[in-house]
């Protein structure tokens, strides 16, 4: 099996491709001699047949298959310092198969850490904490309210059925980012979404609000990592949809293993596992999932997903290729867990930090982010920010957004834009203002060495 | 919502001139405009692209890669119009490549020959037969329908440069439109080709090579080109048939997807190009060092250029040579030196060695 991992340096992907015909010949020979086939890896157990028509069906035994997927997860976690012993990790759990597997794997990691902790003499490595968060989107999809109640019930029982250490479950209403008054917040959310003319834009805005509510619950409850279970397939779709939406510049920020531009860094430990593996694993381990039909069936995102599915059918490694291509784009400075020189972190933890060296181009750092989608802004996009010195709030918002959000999320005419910005969560608006100050400070920083006097009057 | 308000305002009249009845909704802007305004904005946009990107300098000799298809026919027409209207001061030429595909290229070349007369632009035809000693018909006879596009593509690239050198032009323009470029961006992502991804959106390429190429239609929608030819169809004379050797299923995937996207969001094509321009690709990525081919003198990063490798394979009856991973001539050069006879023979059949770059 190709390791499917962009981080894999062993070149097994290439090797397999080159020798593809050779391998199959060997298989045929082996199969011809012995009707009772064995796992191609351990050569002793009976391989699993999933009958899902996917590639590599009937090649690996259950254990080898499981180890492979878990191995990719663990490699991602350890090589990017996603979870360290002193961390407190919040798993974003939607009930879908990817996040179910993410939860399961994080749980297994925690059990192992606990075992090590109990076995060690000096107990220098604490066990990281795990919490689970579910975003309740009833406010955006009133029709799903009964399913949502069932799903929440199911999630609570699923999490409590995991063996100890106990995990807290947080159910976060998506409107929580608008304030604590739930009725008013819900009203603002509905109005905000209604004022977005484009279907795809509405979908993207909701997804972003979901992330904001996860961030909110994570930081309010003392978590310092947010685990999101996006798999390769999901990220491949994101690569193409971001390209189609003209978000080529910010794309490289979204698809790395770590995204620390948020208050609580987001980590994607399942980035190197494809959906087929995830669903097989759920099937294998009897992991139950619940899918809520929240997504619209028309729009750019859906079209892209079906295109990727079509490509995947034609070539089973296409999703990996897409993600690998995008991973070659230069990441941003925040695409790694920030270094801690904190003396609170025990030496034992610090010693264990292994990091892959991501290539950074220092000159390519960005300071400005789109207040709507939090995507880093290209210089050419953000340059006109300064032209709106004394403009109205709505104009400033328009100028501060990335071109993609301007088109698909912001309403076109002035008055509805004014209204739209009044519905936005307060901290988005304050971000716009901060950004302006930041960008001026940044400009000043650039010419600092030419300034003769260090006060404002000079400029 | 937006469409509604526009309809209410301009259901009867063109929303640019407010005088005539609109005949089309521009795919790019969704404006409903009349035929006359369409011609004007279509041509003006291309003029703006040319001016803003400083594609040409006054007094330059420019060859238009003309296949006889709609894109290059419209390009030849529009460029000669704009050259006259805005005094670019360009010497324009038509340059056609005769791949030697019976039933396809011979017919389309007839169109280009008529265009030569219609627009008064001198035409140069360069044929594979003359350059390489092989026509595509011969090549397909030898290697079959699979992989023949590799030969055609490699040969055409070089043939265009050689034709351009014959005409002594400073630049070569091609009719690649926005849809083509968006498609290439997607394909490069799907293929994992980061080097091509970084350069496929440049409006001018090969500036360090002998003859730079540019694409004035970079931001022009295929639909608008089709409409332009359709509206002009009595005047514009072009040839529309798919190449008979290229069923091209894989590109078809991406093309279909782009058409679907355009239906939902016409702007998506320009957004893909924008993404392609904005991708953060480290400029420090090692690029292959550019040299010249030892056999024919054409630019090449290897000992021999790709065309020479492929040609060598054809002449030696080993057409698989040079397809797929590099091995053979450039990778395994010792084998070559052992058989001087075969090399000498194949140099004879290559007629282009004398062309100078």
Which SSEs are present, and which pair or pack?
The complex is a heterodimer of chains A (459) and B (357).
Chain A: H1 12-18, H2 20-33, H3 62-79, E1 88-92, H4 97-119, E2 129-136, H5 145-161, E3 168-173, H6 182-194, H7 199-220, E4 225-227, H8 232-244, H9 248-254, E5 258-259, E6 266-267, H10 275-285, H11 300-314, H12 318-327, H13 347-352, H14 379-382, H15 393-400, H16 403-408, H17 414-423, H18 426-446
Parallel strand pairs in A: 1-2, 1-4, 2-3, 4-6
Antiparallel strand pairs in A: 5-6
Helix pairs in contact in A: 3-10, 4-10, 8-11, 8-12, 15-17
Chain B: H1 2-10, E1 24-25, E2 32-33, H2 35-52, E3 61-65, H3 70-85, E4 91-98, H4 105-119, E5 123-127, H5 128-132, H6 136-143, H7 148-167, E6 171-173, H8 178-191, H9 194-199, E7 204-205, E8 213-214, H10 222-231, H11 249-264, H12 268-278, E9 291-292, E10 299-300, H13 306-315, H14 333-338, H15 340-349
